[in-house]
Task: structure prediction
Amino acid sequence: MLHRQKITGPCAWTGPEIRESARWIVELSPADLAEIEAALAHVDRLDIPWHAITQEDFPLQGLKARLAAAREELEEGSGMVKLRTIPVERYSEAQLKRLYYGLGTHLGHLLFQNNRGELMREIRDEGAEIGQRYGEVKTEQGGTFLSSYARTLSNGALRFHTDRCDVVGLLCVRQAGRGGVSKLASSVAIHNTILERRPDLLDVLFQPYFRSRFGEEKGMEKTAYPLPIFGLQDGKFTSHYSLTYIEAAEFIPGIPPLSPAQREALTLLQQVAEELSFEMVLEPGDIQLLNNHVIYHGRTPFQDDAPSGRSRLLYRLWLAMPNSRRLPDDHAILWRDVTPGSLRGGIGQAVVPA
Result:
């Protein structure tokens, strides 16, 4: 067993601690909102498609310092930021996409989120056929195992996980009639707690687990890759975790089953994440930014109430950050580039032969 140490710093928070802190909340001022609205009016006049907007198209000189501070908080602070509050009721959905994408260009580099080349994903309940559209496997017991992507677009609960990017951003346009609450936990604090309770299992989490590419890259649905859940590089922590991809790998012929120690470590990980988590309610107009290297996120189940207009809709961006940390070399199998500040993560796109 290796000699591992507790990781300290503002990213190692518990739910009760972070609830008492306001360091991660950024209240946009009237001047901030006016500048954003002026930038939106500019791209509206030019009729620039939202996915073609650049920083130059969406000038935010007055917000530059506040957005730089947000990037710093994400990488060196608590690992999360909530920007409040965009007046979403003032804009059409087309304008909101321009606004959110334009703002995103000032935070980082926008990444593809699926193999269809989407740079912004609408997160909503897409109904009962999601598995057929986004990936499912029929189990030997006669059940249906949904891909991670399909689960995101249901109204079910989402277990704690990370996304395949440095930072994930969610703009809340509408909330559900009931439920849909964001759940967050510091993976650094989870690491520290497991170190105290079961250091033997902490070592297991630093060893590779096979993950399926199920529902991600085209043509690679039946392949898996080994990657540890926890990693350390130059004193900085990283965790990439989604139980669904680990479970999906076990459907692939030739992939070894999880060992008893691996299963025990996963059970403890999930238990500690629940213990240390807190719930964040996103109101319409809130933007939640999370550093996936140090934070797990999940969601409670929800129920839409269409007659009242409470039908949950979030816009999601995936960002590679200019101030991101270096990652361990063995993480290149997922991230492609592990150097700090690099363009990494996201879903690679199929190359069409000439």
Summary: The mean pLDDT is 93. The domain at 15-126+158-207+259-335 is CATH 3.60.130.10 (Double-stranded beta-helix).
